Amino acid sequence: MDMRLIGTLSLVWLFMATAALAQSDNASVVDRNGNPLERGQEYYIRPAITDSGGRFTLINRTESCPLYAGQENTDSPEGLPVTFEPFAEEDDTVKVNRDFKLTFSAATTCIMSTTWMLGQNDTQSGRRLIVTGDDGGYGNYFRIVQAQFSGIYNIQWCPTQVCPTCRFLCGTVGNLRENGKLLLALDGSVLPVVFERA
Ligand SMILES: *[C@@H]1O[C@H](CO)[C@@H](O)[C@H](O)[C@H]1NC(C)=O
Ligand SMILES: *[C@@H]1O[C@H](CO)[C@@H](O)[C@H](O)[C@H]1NC(C)=O
Ligand SMILES: *[C@@H]1O[C@H](CO)[C@@H](O)[C@H](O)[C@H]1NC(C)=O
After folding, report:
1. Ligand 1 atom closest to the CA of 99, numbered from 1
2. Could you please report the per-residue DSSP string of 92-136?
3. Which of 116, 118, 150, 198 sits a CA distance of 20 to 30 A from 57?
4. pTM
5. Nearest C-alpha neighbor of 188 from the set 124, 132, 133
6. How far is the CA of 141 from the centre of ligand 1 (A)?
7. Domain 3-197 adopts which CATH fold?
8. What would the DSSP string read from start to end of 51-70?
9. Is 158 helix (H, G, I), strand (E, B) or coil?
10. pLDDT (tens digit, 0 to 9) for every residue of the chain, 198 residues total?
């Protein structure tokens, strides 16, 4: 075989091996019992720290639709579970730094999807809220990153797996209080979370 061809082939092989390695590098996100979050299973999301509100749930921010992603006011057994749908079809668990869609398991009076979606910049707070709906684009893809302690995570919007060449104004999910309701929002306080199998 031609030396140049061998060189090219081994480069291709090296590239494929590195790509495979980079993917297997991604640790699975684990719930409070240390089990990987599975595609399609229901999990509650709640703050990892006390006095930061309760489990995640749908919030009716206004009289009309859509519903927003938010939290119960208190650390009660209320709230709605979510299911995860990793972007990579071969991922049957949720892995850190990889994109997925997440959807509240709930039927609502709003005839629309309960999938999380990045909302517009809210004029009052100057923060981007998390609303529900399906924009068929990048707005529905979130990811989980490892926080300072094992088993504790942050949720981000930064869909660079879905679009590696895009430049996003990425953000981490925190909360804000509006009219006695806790809403999820980027661009401010950051809320570390844990996951509980429903
Ligand atoms: C995890 O996956 C993402 C997207 O596929 C990739 O950019 C990243 O380098 C991977 N590795 C780690 C260690 O997070
Ligand atoms: C909105 O939420 C309030 C309190 O959580 C509830 O009383 C009201 O019925 C809800 N409205 C709609 C349209 O779901
Ligand atoms: C949202 O709007 C505020 C003020 O209007 C601005 O300061 C902030 O940079 C905006 N944030 C984003 C993510 O566009």
Report:
1. 4
2. -B-BTT--EEEEE----SS-S--BEEEEEEPTTTSSEEEEE---S
3. 150
4. 0.86
5. 124
6. 15
7. Trefoil (Acidic Fibroblast Growth Factor, subunit A) (2.80.10)
8. TS--SEEEE--SSSSPPEEE
9. coil
10. 565 655 555 655 555 555 555 556 899 999 999 999 999 999 999 999 999 999 999 999 988 999 999 999 998 889 999 999 999 999 999 999 999 999 999 988 888 899 999 999 999 999 999 999 998 899 999 999 999 999 999 999 999 999 999 999 999 999 999 999 999 999 999 999 999 999
Alpha carbons 75 and 29: distance in angstroms, whole number: 23
Domain boundaries, the chain: 3-197
**Ligand 1: residue whose CA is nearest its atom 1:** 26
Q: Is 122 in the pocket of ligand 3 (CB under 6 A)?
A: no
- CA pair distance 26, 88, nearest whole angstrom: 12
The gap between the terminal CA atoms of the chain, to the nearest Å, is 58
